Amino acid sequence: MVFWEGYVSDEVMGTFAPIVVYWLYAGFYQLLPSLDKYRLHTKEEDKEKNLVPFGAVVKGVLLQQLVQAIVALFLLTTTSNTPEATVQPSIPKQVFQIITAMLVMDTWQYFVHRYMHQNKFLYRHIHSQHHRLVVPYAIGALYNHPLEGLLLDTVGGAISFLASGMTSRTAVTFFCFAVVKTVDDHCGLWLPGNIFHLFFQNNTAYHDIHHQLQGLKYNYSQPFFPLWDMLLGTYMPFTLVKRPEGGLEARPAKD
């Protein structure tokens, strides 16, 4: 029994809930008061280094989410059973399916992401759009070239869903969690008590390293675990250093 039962279908919820969660969580970070002592970059760096205006970022994210919604609604409705035949698996099985989906998504995104850096044409014409945000922030988490958004996120999400065998109802939990994790990785803040920083090595500072010049060929893993970076030699650990003017800086701990 879930709160939306009887109001909207699991398929509709699985399509639109992640979009709503994205804007709620990213909006929360956007509306936070100035927290300069927790910022990984100064506001001056934000203005100087980022190469795309905020309005264009919002439009880019909305375009990607439109494509994701169309694909997700089609996928969920064509793979689901009739409501009478849908039986939710046990909690342990759902946890196993979610972990499976996390590992599949990490695998897909690592290799596609890495190839987009290694292929000069793809980087110059497609992936570099995401790296125009040298100083990441929450609302820009899904700011990508439309083709990258389709290939990396939408197709990756579809493969994860199908490979795990989860139901549409379980997919609501998985995709909402994936969205929150992705937004948090791009928030640019190292807040005390953040559970993602406590339980995931692949976190805000880890991904911030990747957005900097010295880390472009490292820390490709996203959004959950740094497994493939560790296995394939692209893992760049970080140290957090207090800035003299206030705030924090994520510095590579690798020569």
TrEMBL record:
InterPro entries assigned to the protein according to its UniProt record, in alphabetical order: Fatty_acid_hydroxylase, Sterol_Desaturase_Related
Subcellular location as annotated: Membrane
PANTHER family per UniProt: STEROL DESATURASE
Keyword Lipoprotein carried by entry: no
The species this protein was found in: Arachis hypogaea
Official protein name in the record: Fatty acid hydroxylase domain-containing protein
GO biological process terms held by the UniProt record: lipid biosynthetic process
Membrane-spanning intervals of the chain: 12-32, 52-75, 95-112
